[in-house]
Amino acid sequence: MTAPALAHWAPANEETLTTLLAAVRKWTPFDGDAVLEDVGAVLDDVIPREDDVEDLAERLRGHLMQLVDIGLTNKADEDEEAARLIARAREVPVADVPGDHWRAVGHLRRMAWTVNELVERLGAIRCLKEYA
Questions:
Q1: Which of 59, 115, 108 is nearest to 90 (CA)?
Q2: Helices (H) then strands (E): counts for the chain
C-alpha cells in the first residue's frame, strides 16, 4: 500500500511571505474577557469619565472590527440577525465621537450594545465557541 502523494507546489515569493508575516504580527486573538470588561465599563451605572471616552471608543471600535471579521470569516452574515448586527457594527464606529461628554457617552453606549449583541449572536450561531 502506498501513501498518497502530495501535489508539488512552488514556495511563496518574498512579497507574499512578507505580507503574511505582517498580517500574523498584527493579529490579536479574540479576548472575550476584555470585550466584556469594556462593555461593562460603558454600560455600567457609573458614567465613563471624560478622560476615558476616547480610549474606550478606540477599544470598542477594535472589538467591533474583530467581531465583524470573525462573523464574515464564519459566514455569519448568512444568518439574518447576524447580518443586521454586522451591518450596524460597520456603521457605528465610522461616526466620530461627539465632543460633548453626554453625547459621547451615548455614542459609547450604542457601540457597547452593538458589541454585546454581536457577541451574543455570534455565540448563538457557534461562531464564537467561548460563548456558544
A1: 115
A2: 5, 0
The answer as to whether 91 is a domain residue is: yes
118 by DSSP, 3-state: which? Answer: helix
**φ and ψ of 82, to 5 deg:** -65, -40
Neighbouring C-beta atoms of residue 120, cutoff 10 Å? 14
- For residue 108, is it within any domain? yes
Residue 95 has pLDDT above 80, yes or no: no
Residue 83 has pLDDT above 90, yes or no: yes
**pLDDT reported for residue 27:** 79
| Cβ proximity of 130 and 32 under 8 Å | yes
Residue 55 sits at the vertex; the CA angle it makes with 53 and 57, to the nearest 5 degrees, is 65
Please give the pLDDT value at position 24: 82
Mean pLDDT of the chain: 88
Which secondary-structure segment (H or E) carries 69? Answer: helix 53-73
- Displacement of CA 112 from its chain's centroid (Å): 12
Vertex 109 angle, CA 106 and 111, to 5°: 115
Domain extent at residue 77: 30-131
